[in-house]
Amino acid sequence: MKMSHILQGLKETVATTASIMLIVSAASVFSWILTKERIPQMLTDWMLQTIDNKYVFLIVINIFLLIVGMFIEGNASMIILVPLLAPIAASYGINEIQFAMVYIFNNAIGALSPPMGTLMFVTCSITKCKTALFIKEAVPFYILLGINLMLLTWFEPFTTFLVNVLY
Q1: For the residues 67-85, what does the mean pLDDT come to?
Q2: pLDDT score of 59
Q3: What is the chain written as a DSSP string?
Q4: How many CA atoms lie within 13 A of 70 on its CB side?
Q5: CA 47: distance to chain centroid?
Q6: 39, 61, 73, 124: which could form a disulfide with 34 (CB 3.0–4.6 Å)?
Q7: Cα–Cα distance between 68 and 106 in angstroms, integer?
Q8: In a 10 Å sphere around its CB, with 0-12 CB exposed, 13-18 middle and 19+ buried, how is residue 99 labelled?
């Protein structure tokens, strides 16, 4: 490697890290404001009054998180939404490990999905593949990811079995 390649790599690293840190810091400030204004408590009360079944709650959360994952980077959405949604999930009696798995899996699917899926664009830029071709070829994988998401959502031992065995 030449020194010019190392310098170019360092410049790209700094630019990428700075942009990610800006997103994370803005999300942290927004999360702090939500907490200070007691939005999580109000949202919890509203959800518990509106939705009376944990499975309906999980369906609503899946749809919401898939949409959020398509537009917002995963770390930023976690910083903002986990403090809002985790207490609600706990009040429905949803295992925290199951909720975490569902949350992360929804974010991953959203990041691979159009219109703004960040992982989809990164993959297409690295492989020099057109986005339309990627989407067409990824349909079987989207179906498989949807089936896995349903298993994670509605079958708790699917997410907690290994943890229960080890701990």
Answers
A1: 82
A2: 92
A3: --HHHHHHHHHHHHHHHHHHHHHHHHHHHHHHHHHHTTHHHHHHHHHHHH---HHHHHHHHHHHHHHHHHHS-HHHHHHHHHHHHHHHHHHTT--HHHHHHHHHHHHHHHHTSTTT-HHHHHHHHHHT--HHHHHHHHHHHHHHHHHHHHHHHH-HHHHHHHHHHH-
A4: 9
A5: 20
A6: 39
A7: 9
A8: buried
Cα–Cα distance, 32 to 79 (Å, whole number): 9
- Distance (Å, rounded) from C-alpha 38 to C-alpha 48? 16
| pLDDT for the residue 101 | 93
- Please check whether residue 117 is in contact with residue 71, taking contact to mean a CB–CB distance below 8 angstroms: no
Comparing C-alpha atoms, which of 69, 67, 59 is closest to residue 92?
Answer: 59
pTM here is: 0.75
